[in-house]
Amino acid sequence: MSGAGTVRVRLDIGYDGTGFSGWAEQPGRRTVQGEVQAALARVLRVDAAQLTVAGRTDAGVHARCQVAHVDLPGEVWEAEGERLLRRLAGVLPADVRVRSVGRAPEGFDARFSPMFRRYVYRVSDAPGGVDPLRRHDVLWHKRPLDIDRMNAAAAELIGEHDFAAFCRRREGATTIRELLRLSWEREGDHLYAGTVQADAFCHNMVRALVGALLAVGDGRRGPDWPRKVLTAGVRDSAVHVVPPHGLTLEEIRYPADTDLAARATATRRVRTLPGV
Predict the structure, then answer these.
(1) Span 133-138, average pLDDT
(2) How far apart are the first and last CA of the chain?
(3) pLDDT the model gives residue 272
(4) Start-end of H helices in 109-247
(5) Residues at the annotated binding site for substrate?
C-alpha cells in the first residue's frame, strides 16, 4: 500500500531478455530492474525508485507484459505523471520499454494481487533449424515433435498439486501451485507454442514442465511419464530444464479493483493440499 504522502504507480513493461541477467538487481550485472530503476531515478530526479515486480524472470527470459509498481512522493507524481511514459522512452535502452504507466488503484500490489501469470514457450523442430530472425525467442529441438502426445501428457498435470518434482526448492518457500492451463498449439510450420498458466510459479517450474513434455513429444517418454514424476514428488534427473530464451511472459491478470486487497491477502497465505 502507498504510505502517507506517497502514490503507488503501476508500470507495464516489455523486454527482450537476451542481454539481461534476469529481472532482479544483481551487483555488477545488467538487469531489467536495474535499468528501469535507473531510468526512473534519472527522469524523476529522485535518489532511488524501488520496483516491486509481479514475477522475477530468469536470465534470457523475455516479457511482453511484465508488471511492477513503485511508490513515489505525491508531489513527484503530480509534477511528472503525464509526461513520465514519453520521458522514460527517451532514456531507456532499446531492449526494454515501459508500455504504460499510471496511478494504481487502492489495494494494488504487483506481486501479490495477480490472479494468474501466463507464459508461452516457443520451440521449433524444423530440420534445418530455427529461423535466424527468431533465434533469440525460439528453441530448436532436433527431434520431430508430436503435439497430440504433448497435450495428452499436459492434461494430466492441470490442477493444484505439489510441483516439487519440477521446481528448484528454496528455503521456506512452498512448491504447491495451481496449474490453470498447460497446452500446445501450432504457430506456424514446425513452430509450436506451449502455454503455461498458473496462479504463481516456483523456480524453474515452467522450463522443467516444458522439458518433460518435449521428452514425450519426441517419443523418448510415454504420455503418462510427467504425471508419474509429479506424483513421485522429488526432482527427477531425467527432467531436462530447457534453455530460457524460448520463454516469454505474455500476460499477468489482476482482479477487479475492489478485489485487489483481498487477493493479495489470499496469496500470502501458506498453501497446503487437502489432507496434508
Answers:
(1) 97
(2) 33
(3) 65
(4) 147-155, 205-217, 225-232
(5) 119
Element (H, E) at 119: strand 116-124
Cell numbers for 221, please give them.
Answer: 517418454
Q: Is 58 a residue of the active site?
A: yes
Q: In the numeric block, which cell numbers belong to residue 231?
A: 506424483
Cβ neighbours of residue 76 under 8 Å, at least 6 residues apart? 44, 46
> Do residues 69 and 10 touch, judged by C-beta distance below 8 A?
yes
Provide CB contacts within 8 A for 99, sequence distance 6+. 12, 13, 14, 65
Q: What is the pLDDT of residues 212-251, one digit of tens each?
A: 999 999 999 999 999 999 999 888 888 999 999 999 999 9
Looking at residue 205, its amino acid is: M
Q: What percent of the chain has pLDDT over 70?
A: 96
Q: Which residues make Cβ contacts (< 8 Å) with residue 104, sequence separation at least 6?
A: 8, 9, 10, 69
Q: Give the residue among 134, 202, 131 at the shortest CA–CA distance from 164.
A: 202
SS3 label, residue 159: strand
Catalytic residue among 12, 16, 47, 58: 58
d(CA 159, CA 161) in angstroms, rounded, equals 6
> Residue range 51-71: average pLDDT?
97
